[in-house]
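Title: Prediction job returns without error message
Component: structure pipeline
Severity: low
Priority: P3
Assignee: unassigned

Description:
Job completed but the reporter wants confirmation the result is attached to the right record. Sequence as submitted:
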Amino acid sequence: MFLTKAALPRRTLLRGVGSAIALPLLEAMLPAQTASRNANVVSPSRLVCLEMVHGSAGSSDYGAAKHYWSPEQTGNEFELSYSLQPLEGVRAAITIISNTTAKTADAEKPKEVGADHFRSSAVFLTAARARQREAAPISNGISIDQVYAQHVGTQTPVPSLQLCIESPALENACGYGYDCAFTDTISWASDTRPLPMELNPRVVFERLFGRTTAGSVLDQTTSDRMRLGVGGPDRIRVNRFLEAVRAVERRIQAVERRNALAVVRERLSAPLGVPDSWEEHVDLMFELQALALEADITRVSAFKMSRDVNNRVFRKSGILHPFHSLSHHVQVPTLIDEFAKLNRYHVSFVAQFLKRLADTPDGDGSLLDHSLVLYGSPMGDSYTHNHSRLPIFLAGHANGNLRGKLHHMCSPGTPHGNTLLTILQTVGVEVDSFGDSSGVHSI
């Protein structure tokens, strides 16, 4: 399609009372007289960081021998491991990084022994060391999502998103003298500034698309849509995007209605917009992130998919052991086998999100082509509170800077900070070190 008039501004919004809805990249936003199929349109890289606590079955000696997490083969020719098999549909975009160690999560002093669950999450995106309360003020390190937000966040309406699934801990309920911030968030704006993570899909939706007292935010944008004046393909894209926004809005409204009528809720203190179902909650949060990335409302998100010592039972996975208890499998093979199934179940939701990004056009490729997604845990074997053999993978191509379809095996003792430094350099942040890094991965 050739355009013969001035391009539509990239920051075009559909406005209504209390709402302002950004749009995905359209052909009409490309420079005039440019054929979109030949246009060298550089879409910005997005960074998504996902944490799942309690390590993996594949990080135990038995699980490593069974290759439950890390594939047996390295390089480009590998079979996805049991826990990673849900990623088969996007394997060309997957980079598995094996054998790293989160040394900064290890105990340094006798009083820190056994407290790994209360400092692990603080390490995940910082590779720094969380200090106990007597080292006040709280001290950790800036996280990679916030380094990138400082790099690109001024170019978007929302600099970054911080999302979670579990409610924050009660004050002083975190143990071993660690501030609850180390358990509640993975996102740090500085070494003393933890960022709160939002639990409620309603709050996230309104931050992205605006607020309405009745009906839909889209009801208020009708006149703006009529004046948009884009061509056929763009009109279809706009309509599909708005339908997706409306669909997630309806889902949130349905959750609120259901919870308002419930006599007893599983999550007693949760807001009305928070589903009792982990699966529904996670899926809503992933969809909100996908919409935000597609419309370039933000280029950065951090999503904490659980909290340490969470004993939720994931009944739909077919595993009836509570999460934390199962992660402490006391080296019993049958329990490790069960834990591998639970790891696989969690990964399956990430796989759905990655497929959503892969199916979403974005400039000269897809959202997955232009994103880097980190998934993993700062703990290895939860039974031993070990921080070696971290279960980590990256997804996406980061605008061609990440090849994908690779299993990279690190030397024993390779710092987790190397992974974080590699991520920052891959998305274009010029830094030479990060956390406890000693170099970068050759990926």
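Comment from assignee: result matches the submitted record. Confidence is low (pLDDT under 50) at residues 1-5.
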